[in-house]
Amino acid sequence: MTDVLARRNFRSLATPEAVDAVHGQLDDLWEDAPFVPDMDRMTFATAVIEAAANVVQHAEPESADPVELGVDICIRQSSLRAKVSAFGAASPSIDGDPAMPGEDAESGRGLALIRALVTTVTFTRQDATNTWILSRDPIGS
Amino acid sequence: MDLSYEVKDSYAEIKAAGRLNMVSAPKLREFVADVVAAGSSRIVVNLEDTAFMDSSGLGALIGCLKAARQAGGDLRIAAVQPQVKMVLELTSMDRVLTSYATAAEAFGND
């Protein structure tokens, strides 16, 4: 496991504005990691924003407390990795292999888009927290 | 996202500047609906200053396209930047949302 060269950690209530805040963190992060090529930045950032937006749009609270969005991004020399978490969320219904919907559809492309943008997507659920881990590696390929 | 529009000879040009995401997507839908309601159904969305679009933004563009067509017109996009082009291609929506180099070219031959 190589060293972490840049990292950002974000957590707040899962609101649409939180997605904008995550975007700001991503823009800021690249300044600490100038070696990451534009194509990798573009694809990875798009996947992270899609995953964060998915939490805001679809995560249902498990209790009376609202869902919180967490995004933890790590950059290593050869990989980009993001943990996108829905804290306090009920277990989601997930389509493991989502297809793109028809041309007329105005929603439903997010998960298929994420799969097209990163190398691996994994999902875990533990202690009322749903976590998606997105990895893109190797960088620059 | 900042939205503005200008009525030209044969179309209305909407300039969208900023990120087209889940925050701004409802604003774009509302903005285009107002432009259509005001009598312009041939619409070009100029994306020159839209550096980022996610699937919510794409969904809004598709909704706006339907609204324009229902009003007897069409919606086309212009000056698409690399990230937006990538999202259109990965979702195959580049076949539905026709992209032109400039807003003036979008309805140039109609």
Automatic annotation (TrEMBL), chain A:
Official protein name in the record: ATP-binding protein
A Pfam family assignment: HATPase_c_2
Species for this entry: Arthrobacter globiformis
Transmembrane segment boundaries: none
GO molecular function, one term: ATP binding
Histidine kinase/HSP90-like ATPase domain span: 14-131
Entry keyword annotation includes ATP-binding: yes
The keyword Nucleotide-binding is annotated on this UniProt entry: yes
UniProt keyword terms in alphabetical order: ATP-binding, Nucleotide-binding
UniProtKB/TrEMBL annotation, chain B:
InterPro entries recorded: Anti-sigma_ant, STAS_dom, STAS_dom_sf
STAS domain span: 1-110
GO molecular function: anti-sigma factor antagonist activity
Database matches in Pfam families: STAS
Similarity remark: Belongs to the anti-sigma-factor antagonist family.
Name by which UniProt lists this protein: Anti-sigma factor antagonist
Species of provenance: Arthrobacter globiformis
